[in-house]
């Protein structure tokens, strides 16, 4: 077996518990689903998962250690991600109830394509993913088994699969609720303000972290 079975079982349990605990990724996907419908929620999850593939690939190649050795670059990345989230929140509030942010017909909120790229960019500049790949994944890799890169690939694939399962479900359910509320204009406006508040809150939280 390419990975240690005991470490793999521990990895599954730990990752699943972490996934079902509400965090920035889940809240972001929930917000996209509420604004753009089930498809936007699912594509936002796909964007987040795609960025995780990039982070895991860099970790397997040993490049993520650069951020551990360069705190300034790490801080710059964190602030850039925070600023982008705040920008998304402000835009959602400014265009509340209008569907003026790249909506697809019938959604009145956020297009699937835009949801994907926002999920990709938001998580790509999230330094917590860098920390995850440096500090978490290697704990379940056994160098004695050899082919460390393959162990990273297997663990990374499982992590991305669980991401789709958990956050994808949240995005689709949020999208259905959002579509129902979207047929009521006053509710749509309140929903957009709430979603914008979530994005701004995530940005402030990310900027304040050390």
Describe this structure in words.
With 210 residues, the chain is mainly α. It contains nine helices and no strands.
List the helices and strands and how they pair.
Blueprint: H1 5-20, H2 24-36, H3 38-60, H4 65-69, H5 71-94, H6 112-124, H7 127-136, H8 148-182, H9 185-208
Structure summarized in a few sentences:
This protein has helices at 5-20, 24-36, 38-60, 65-69, 71-94, 112-124, 127-136, 148-182, 185-208.
Key terms for this structure?
210 residues
Order of helices and strands: HHHHHHHHH
Distance between the termini: 39 Å
**Regarding quaternary structure, how should these chains be classified?**
single chain
Helix content: over 70%
Give me the secondary-structure category.
mainly alpha
- Unreliable residue runs: 99-108
Put simply, the count of helices is: 9
């Amino acid at each position: 077996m390419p990975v240690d079975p005991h470490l793999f079982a521990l990895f599954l349990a730990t990752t699943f518990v972490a996934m079902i605990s509400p965090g920035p990724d889940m809240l972001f996907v929930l917000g996209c689903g509420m604004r753009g419908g089930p498809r936007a929620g699912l594509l936002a999850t796909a964007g987040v998962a795609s960025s995780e593939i990039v982070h895991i690939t860099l970790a397997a190649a040993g490049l993520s250690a650069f951020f551990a050795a360069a705190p300034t670059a790490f801080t710059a990345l964190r602030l850039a991600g925070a600023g982008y989230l705040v920008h998304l929140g402000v835009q959602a509030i400014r265009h509340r109830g209008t569907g003026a942010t790249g909506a697809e017909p019938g959604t009145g909120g956020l297009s699937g394509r835009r949801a994907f790229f926002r999920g990709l960019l938001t998580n790509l500049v999230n330094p917590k993913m860098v920390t995850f790949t440096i500090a978490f994944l290697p704990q379940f890799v056994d160098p004695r088994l050899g082919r460390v890169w393959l162990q990273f690939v297997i663990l990374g694939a499982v992590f991305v699969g669980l991401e789709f399962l958990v956050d994808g479900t949240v995005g689709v359910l949020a999208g259905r609720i959002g579509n129902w509320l979207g047929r009521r204009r006053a509710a749509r406006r309140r929903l957009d303000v709430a979603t914008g508040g979530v994005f701004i809150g995530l940005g402030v939280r990310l900027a304040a972290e050390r």
